[in-house]
Amino acid sequence: MQMMMVYSSPRTQGNSTTLAKAFAQAGQSTYTINEVYLQNEELQSCRACKWCKTHFRCLLEDGMNALCASFKESEAICFATPVYWWGVSAQLKLFIDRLYQLRMEDFKGKELYVIACGEDTLDGVQYRLIREQFEQICEYTGMKFAGYLPVCAGDDNPVSENENALHQARTLITKA
């Protein structure tokens, strides 16, 4: 079985990436891990031309067609994102928007995990908004919302020094 890890932080050693790496390491006993670093991709935004709805691939040749093929082959997906302005990173939002080229059956039955790191306290509204967004995406697409890990972390309290958060990331996959 395959899991697609989608790291969406512009910082390669960022808090969300650090947590997701711990999650991926724990998942290696169940899944073959395919790591995607969106900061290394040069994806263009969707043009809403709907060409993909008749050709089942995007007209833009920027690497997203290959990422969609990997997405389709995966039984599980993990989105790791920093929290920006009460939501996911621009890189992740762009990736999600470009998944529009897929058929609805390409989503059905996949397990979706989300890891989100921001500096606000865990009772902050942004974590609820992110969770609700992905719960609705799963309901719409037929994916299973398998796990969510919001973590408060920043430059002054890096997740690499938060053993509890790292433990939660390593055990998130076993809670599904």
Architecture overview:
This protein is an alpha/beta fold and 176 residues long. The protein is built from 6 helices and 5 strands, in the order E-H-E-H-H-E-H-E-H-E-H. The protein has a single domain, classed as Flavodoxin domain (Rossmann fold). Helix 4 links the parallel strand 3 and strand 4. The longest helix has 17 residues, at 125-141. The chain starts with a strand and ends with a helix.
Topology of this structure?
Layout: E1 2-7, H1 15-27, E2 32-37, H2 52-55, H3 64-73, E3 76-82, H4 90-98, E4 111-118, H5 125-141, E5 144-152, H6 163-172
CATH superfamily heading: Flavodoxin domain
Strand content: 15-25%
The CATH architecture comes to 3-Layer(aba) Sandwich
Can you tell me the overall shape? globular
Number of separate strands: 5
CATH topology: Rossmann fold
Give the helix proportion (percent range): 25-40%
Number of helices: 6
Distance between the termini: 15 Å
Widest β-sheet, arrangement of strands: 2-1-3-4-5
CA-atom Rg in angstroms:
16 Å
The top-level CATH class is: Alpha Beta
Number of domain modules: 1
Low-confidence regions: none
> Helices and strands: which structural class?
alpha/beta
The chain-level mean pLDDT equals 94
Keywords:
6 helices; about 180 residues; Flavoprotein-like_sf; globular; ISF_SsuE-like; FMN_Rdtase-like_dom; alpha/beta; flavoprotein; Rossmann fold; Flavodoxin family protein
In short, what is this structure?
The chain has 176 residues and is α/β, with parallel strands linked by helices. It is built from 6 helices and 5 strands. Keywords: Flavoprotein, FMN.
